[in-house]
Design goal:
Elements lengths: L3 H8 L44 E2 L10 E6 L6 H14 L4 E5 H16 L15 H23 L4 E5 L5 H12 L5 E8 L3 H13 L10 H16 L12 E5 L4 E5 L4 H11 L8 E5 L4 H5 L10 H18 L5 E4 L3 H7 L5 E4 L16 H7 L1 H9 L4 E2 L6 H17 L3 E5 L1 H12 L15 E8 L2 E8 L34
Parallel strand pairs: 2-4, 2-5, 3-4, 5-6, 8-12, 9-10, 9-12
Antiparallel strand pairs: 1-11, 6-7, 8-13, 13-14
Helix pairs in contact: 6-7, 12-13, 14-15
The protein binds succinic acid (SIN).
Succinic acid binds next to helix 3 and helix 4.
Length: 506
């Protein structure tokens, strides 16, 4: 049977002869059908109807077997929420379903309800955290258990990694978590202890807590809030037991970036989590993104290829060093490019160490490589429509999807987390994927993020997100952004580095 795209190809035969490198021309790559059966989509029970292999939408990998309870351990102000948030962003970028269950939020929500229903005054002062206060200790234990129950239910409903963001600071609390999770078939628990011995980091965390509009301290002066929070910490210190239970699956991170202890970590996802956490550090730094200067293909409206820079692209390459050095001064910087000549040419005048990464090469457009969007629409009208329908999941015939690119960029993310100041001279699709990781943008929006030519994007990681600045050089360039069809509002990140307090938890 003739497929719709085959009919499109054969109908071109009677049209005027195609250009040598154009759609249907002799240099157009032919789709090798013999490879189609060797690539199978996900075995997920509910694949999208249109999944038929390559050149079409490809279903998300089946992660339904992944069920992990990740229970945080640590005194207050030791970066537990920071680590929970980082890990959540990373795993969500890889399309795992992850949710943080923060016991402090549950406490506040319940206290607010009690205040409304029974007129009982909310009390979030250190007194509530004293282990000599029996009634409060009972209530805190109950909150931790209720939060764990919600987490387990959420995992049963389809979640992959539930993060129990609480102090879990005693052996008995950890034993309860372990016993409860053991009752659930297919679920495992890992404890993640954050230890911090660096007084400067603890002081910064305390300052962040009391200055960030924390709802526990909303009616207090900063001085009173700080005094109370330090007292809360000492209440916990009085009973704190670091993890020594020899049988537990756990990771202990000491002074983020300094030392990691790994014990009984098993399986792919657990190891991946461990590996990610081992690469984190807290040193202040910035990550710069720039697309290559305008290329000859950009000017001609073609995608892919390995074209050199246009004259305006060369001007950008010459202007870039001054922009970067003005911004970063004497600080060390490493430049990463792809292996394609347009990024290498753009980096050529930069006076810094340079590395080329194959993983940074542009999304492979397969048989459409070297074509214009108009040519693709004409040659493969069905594919073109599928791509517009679901761009993240669409895989070019013989090429890649955005998801494929995310998977191949994972080592780049790992290395970016390990490094300090980095400038990436990359490609539109690649920078969209990296940008979405840093700003926690959903997969559906990712392929439409605006990354204009001749513009440097500077991201500065903060405790709960990234600050962003953009610097455009006044050198004209074509606009290669194709908006999401039928959507007037295009996605854009509104950088938010504030800690979220999830006020709506039930
Ligand atoms: C909190 O209520 O803020 C945290 C409770 C805990 O995990 O000990």
């Amino acid at each position: 049977m003739e497929t719709p795209s085959e009919s499109a190809v054969s109908s071109r035969v009677s049209s005027p002869p195609p250009a040598t490198f154009g759609a249907g021309g002799p240099m157009l790559k032919q789709f090798d059908r013999s490879t189609a059966s060797s690539r199978k989509g996900s075995q997920s029970s509910t694949p999208p109807i249109t999944v038929v292999g390559i050149g079409n939408k490809v279903a998300k990998p089946d992660y339904s077997e992944a069920k992990i309870v990740l229970a945080m351990v640590g005194l207050p102000a030791r970066g537990k929420s920071y680590l929970s948030n980082k890990l959540m962003r990373y795993l969500k970028w890889l399309e795992y379903d992850v949710k943080v269950f923060n016991v402090g939020q549950l406490r506040r929500t319940r206290a607010r309800q009690q205040a409304q229903q029974a007129g009982i005054r909310e009390n979030h002062t250190a007194e509530f955290f004293s282990h000599n206060n029996e009634e409060a200790t009972r209530r805190r234990d109950q909150l931790a258990e209720d939060s764990l129950e919600m987490l387990i239910q959420w995992l049963k409903d389809g979640g992959n990694v539930g993060i129990h963001d609480a102090t879990n600071s005693t052996r008995s609390r950890r034993a309860k978590i372990e016993a409860r999770v053991a009752k659930e078939k297919g679920m495992s628990v890992i404890f993640l202890e954050s230890v911090c011995n660096d007084p400067a980091i603890i002081a910064a965390n305390v300052a962040l807590k009391v200055s960030s509009g924390d709802p526990d301290y909303k009616d207090m002066s900063r001085e009173d809030a700080k005094r109370d929070f330090l007292r809360r910490i000492s209440e916990y210190e009085a009973v704190y037991e670091t993890i020594t239970e020899p049988h537990l699956s756990y990771l202990r991170i000491t002074d983020v970036g300094n030392q990691v202890t790994v014990s009984h970590i098993n399986g792919y996802l657990q190891s991946r989590i461990a590996f990610y956490l081992m690469n984190l550090h807290l040193k202040p730094r910035s990550i710069f993104f720039s697309r290559h200067g305008e290329s000859q293909y950009n000017v001609e409206g073609k995608i892919g290829g390995d074209a050199p820079l246009s004259p305006r692209g060369m001007q950008y390459a010459k202007g870039l060093p001054a922009l970067i050095t003005d911004n970063i001064g004497d600080a060390p910087l490493t430049v990463w490019t792809s292996t394609l000549q347009r990024t290498i040419q753009t980096a050529q005048y930069l006076p810094y160490n340079k590395l080329t990464w194959k993983s940074l090469d542009e999304l492979d457009a397969g048989v459409c490589d070297g074509m214009t969007y108009e040519e693709i629409e004409q040659a493969y009208p069905e594919d073109f429509a599928h791509r517009d329908e679901d761009k993240f999941n669409y895989r070019y015939r013989g090429g890649e999807s955005y998801r494929d690119v995310v998977v191949r960029l994972e080592p780049v993310i790992m290395e970016l987390e390990r490094q300090e100041n980095i400038l990436i001279i990359g490609h539109q699709a690649i920078l969209r994927c990296l940008y979405a990781y840093f700003h926690n943008l959903p997969q559906a929006d990712l392929p439409y993020i605006k990354i204009p030519l001749h513009t440097v994007i500077k991201l500065t990681p903060k405790a709960y997100g990234c600050d962003e600045e953009r610097y455009a050089l006044p050198i004209g360039a074509v606009d290669t952004h194709r908006p999401k069809p039928g959507t007037p509002q295009q996605p854009h990140a509104t950088p938010n580095t504030a800690r979220e307090y999830y006020g709506n938890d039930k």
